[in-house]
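Risk register update: the risk of archive-format incompatibility is retired. Evidence:
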Amino acid sequence: WALITVAVAGAILLLLFLICIFKCCCSKKKPKKKERISLCAVSNSTTTNLVPQLPDPILLHPVTLCLPPLQLKVGVKRAVELKAMDSGGTSDPYVIVYLTSDRRKRYETKVYRKTLNPIFNESFTFQIPQAEVSESTLVMQIYDFNRFSKHDIIGEVRLPLASVDLQHVIEQWSDLAVASKEEHLGEICFSLRYVPSTGKLTVLILEARQLKRMDSNGLSDPFVKVHLILNRRKWKKKRTSVKKNTLSPYFNEVFVFEVPFSQIQNVDVVISVWDHDKVTKNEPIGKLFLGCRATGNQLRHWSDMLSNPRRPLAQWHILQPPEVVDKALGLKSHLKLPLHSR
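Archived output:
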């Protein structure tokens, strides 16, 4: 029995030894397997995360173009101690507001009579592409209104948008500066008269002054074209005679158009001054247009005409660059309309 007991104990020890060796071998192999899987998982994760983050130029380009325009709201509150421009020691001030990135989009406040401390309290909204914000400047110009002569500028404020934090509301006082000089194209005086019962629109071209010099002798040979536009399409046109060698021509020529009362809201009257040339092509000096789509002094003149039927109303207007007026009109292709002019 002693020999049997020794043999069984030896067998048990050998078996335990073999089991220990087997566990050691298995425990060494398993970490290698886990480490390999872990590395593979990290590799796949890294690849999966990096690939979608690579910039795609085809996809990024339209995202830049589709950025919504910036909405800029400008409020004109009040002005104090303005310069007296009239003989009575007062002024008739109003404010023009525009951005240098789009000069054709202009707003005007109401005219306040006989005051040097007007309270406007008017606001205007501009839509400006975000790419143009850094290069655009907000301009506010104060003018003195005159019905029968040129509107005199009192001063202006220029505010570069790049220097302003547009994320916050800003309210501040600004000193008026001397207005920067722009090219002066001249002025023209004409009267408008509309009779709703007969549908007759009368345009009387009276005179022009201080026109731009177009000829080598320092003068011009001006004449005036009057275009009538309906629904943004050219309809009829008339023109005055040519006045030789003058910058202040006197015309006193009248044109009558038949416009039904139902169509008067859709009509634009374009007044353009040209320099006549026998050898080369006639060159435009300046333009302006009146109608319900007009702004500023032109819209005011048109509104006064509609508010005072049968009464001719004359007023001076400043000529504008032709390309600015053409862009504002946005004319469509020419189409003959079943209306008649006289």
